[in-house]
Amino acid sequence: MTAESPENVLFVVMDTVRKDHLTPYGHDRPTTPGLDRFADEATVFEQAVAPAPWTLPVHASLFTGMYPSQHGADQENPYLEGATTLAETLSAAGYDTACYSSNAWITPYTHLTDGFAEQDNFFEVMPGEFLSGPLAKAWKTMNDSDALRTLADKLVSLGNTAHEYLAGGEGADSKTPAVIDQTIDFVDGSEEFFAFVNLMDAHLPYHPPEEYKERFAPGVDSTEVCQNSKEYNAGAHEIGDDEWEDIRGLYDAEIAHIDDQLTRLFDHLKETDRWDDTMVVVCADHGELHGEHGLYGHEFCLYDPLINVPLMVKHPGLDADRRDDQVELVDLYHTVLDSLDVEGGEPANPGDDAVGLDRTRSLLSADYREFAQASNDDPGQRRDGEYAFVEYSRPVVELKQLEEKASSAGITLPEDSRFYSRMRAARRTDAKYVRIDRIPDEAYRIDADPEESENVVDSDDEAIAETEAALTEFEAAIGGAWTDALDTDVSDDSVDQMDDEAQDRLRDLGYLE
């Protein structure tokens, strides 16, 4: 913490936004003029790495300071359990805390909102209408029954499918303005605050407001382009160059809408004299693939467009500049604690794991990443701090949908494929090594090959060898390498145990045929 450290924190996650579609990162379309101005006041990080390529484990890491294997939140266990959150720690320290989002993963049901005194989820269906009636009963049954536990991933992830069915099309409303409105109301009524917002516009499907669509995708009908990544990934739908261009235009339009709404929030903080006394963090939880490596969306891989994410931080202790050193999103947990001078580490509930402030993990510290020695408590403290680590346990819900799309097209997915694989990666600014449990490992010299087009896993490259060695050390510290492939059967027999009304609701939302 510096003597001039702000009293407040605004933490913004732009869900599914890849950095090369933002103006501060060199995008040739004016998607984010507001963030471009923000970048003039902030530190822009070129090499920020997410701990996973999708929402739930990344947010759990942001809120706990733990890697995914430590906090355990993934689709096979879609809850954050037994860990004290950043919001719980800051609420106990006297800060007003709030979380606003339209992401179906960030709800009380996954425990990601634990500790936030104020929270609202603007998802089209949850939590009001969706988690009432038969599905509310099903949810309670699942929490009480090990046999039904595996169905929980379907319920909390209905956002992805329900957006397509219920929030899609030309009349779709973005929830971002409502998120921003509530955030403004919250900060206006707070003394010292920690406000967290997640903005979902750039997540599939892309149905931007008309004025933004006309600027970035004129003449494109968003209902006519492929909005289902599983159809493409399964090989059931081909996308040509023109359609990819239309998809990317819609994606840019969604990002432009986010930018306008963030600018509205930033302008309000300035007009009410809260700006200078607020640390502002803007990042993405993960990116998105638009055909690169033959993939669409953010599943089944750890390529850089997914994990090398945008990160900008405004704080008087940081220079308004660009940084090329590698940082991890996990470090933001410690950065927030450091900025607010809160030590943390006190369990909110008996038996909780609680991570205390480590200033070698704080972006504000002069000792940042000067790890004195390897730590069993922090498996990421390997070697000289130049490595970032990423974990990816297979996405059960997406995999089930992928299988269904493949089957309907008469396609059989090979069992020894990336679709059924778990992955871990070690990354430094010049090299990446990815351990994969069903197919050959991947390694890239990302300094010379930023597109990750040539797998050099079998080379004698020293940087690759060092990166694999760092990954091996991380795996040993985190509990062992994933060497035994999981069973390919991802069917869920527990669906049969639900009542007819609950099954009908899942069928309406596309989870059952």
Automatic annotation (TrEMBL):
CDD domains referenced in this protein's UniProt entry, alphabetically: sulfatase_like (cd16148)
Source organism of the structure: Haloferax sulfurifontis ATCC BAA-897
InterPro entries, per database record: Alkaline_phosphatase_core_sf, Sulfatase, Sulfatase_N
One GO molecular-function entry: arylsulfatase activity
Keywords carried by this UniProt record: Hydrolase
Region (Disordered), start-end ranges: 489-513
Name of this protein: Arylsulfatase
SUPFAM superfamilies the record matches: Alkaline phosphatase-like (SSF53649)
Source taxonomy: Archaea, Methanobacteriati, Methanobacteriota, Stenosarchaea group, Halobacteria
